[in-house]
Amino acid sequence: MWTIYLKEILELARDRKTLIFTILIPILAVPLISGLFAYFSSTMFDKARRAELPYAVFGQQYAPELAQRFANEKGFREVPLASEADIRKAIDQDVIKFALVIPPGYRDRLEGQRQAVVVLHYNSAVMVDVIRKRVQAVVEAQNGELRESALSSLNLSQQQLRFALNPIRLDEHSTAGKREQVGALIGGMLPYLLLTGCLLAAMYPAIDLGAGEKERGTLETLLLAPVPRGAIVLAKFLVLFTVGLLSSLLMVGSMSALLYLASAISTDPSVATAQSGMADLAAMVHAISAGDMAMVALMLVPTAAIFASILLSLSIYAKSYKEASGMISPLTLVTLLPTMAAMLPGVELNWMWAMVPLTNVSLAMKELVKGTMDYRMFAVILASTTMIAGALLALCRWWFNREQVLFRN
């Protein structure tokens, strides 16, 4: 068995594609892409919040105070339009970002102590609605001024004025620490990257170990060797298990190094980005212990075994390399769904979800990063995932002993 294992490992090590998918991508590509995505997304969000918004306003004679507030607000630039009929075309052509239409009865409604309406035209077909939020902030500032002006005529004291404006004030005290808050964001994506990386790393070798040997005609030669079929299956399984687990562990190490590097940069007082989000990231990274990272790596062991058993079973069943590729490719979607389920609201780590494959591992990784892990659940997840991996390996061994599976062609 070990002879077959070492032979397959040596052949994979000589293959450049395997080295790229197993070592280079987990160590360099995935952490680099994740880091660049986080940097550019934060940069783009900040740029969108500070970008200049060209706008048009109609009926400003009915609300000169509101129109003047927009004119004085930093980041807004008024663009004249001929008529209201040009609003849609101007927005579509990116001449303006939004338009305000103030109706003629605006002043009369305010003086009659009735609610006035301002119509906002903008394109809402965007992922993050920055325009509406920025316009709403300006309008809310005007609302605050009008409320104070209306109540000042009642000769109220400052305390009475605060009561009239906000009878109940919500004083928020979050029980979540910085690690838990930031970890909730990072912990949701970490399982997706690790589990997908584990699957993709073992996918190409799996196709070669099963369907590839069928096409090359070397499978029959291997079956004629004085080695039990169970040993052959176990050797091929260990190859895929090693490749998948090694890829995931390398990814854990490289991403940990990237996070520690980012946290070290953010704590440097000479770096301007040491504020807000980067400082929170630094606090979370320094709070994660080596034991937590070891438990994350430990959960990858039975997960890699599950992927190895499924991949080898499909590859053995396939008639050709092409058929194996078509059968194995949808596994990425099968892996994606339970992993993404861990990020849905209401899906929390409990005794029920601890039994759901992949979702339980994703939830446990998120809890470990947040620092809120129930270690009793960790033992249950590890045990249930190991049992599933063992059952799938037994199924793969039985599958390999069937002649109608091995020689479908």
Which terms summarize this structure?
409 residues, mainly alpha, 2 domains, four-stranded mixed sheet, 17 helices, 69% helix, ABC2_TM, transmembrane, ABC transporter permease subunit, transmembrane helix, membrane
Could you characterize the architecture of this molecule?
There is one protein chain. The protein has 409 residues and is mainly alpha-helical. The chain has 2 domains: 2-32 and 177-406, no CATH class; 54-165, abc type-2 transporter like fold. The chain is built from 17 helices and 4 strands. Strands 2-1-3-4 form a 4-stranded mixed β-sheet. Helix 2 (16-50) runs parallel beside helix 10 (229-266), helix 8 runs antiparallel to helix 14 (331-341) and helix 10 packs across helix 11. It starts with a helix and ends with a helix.
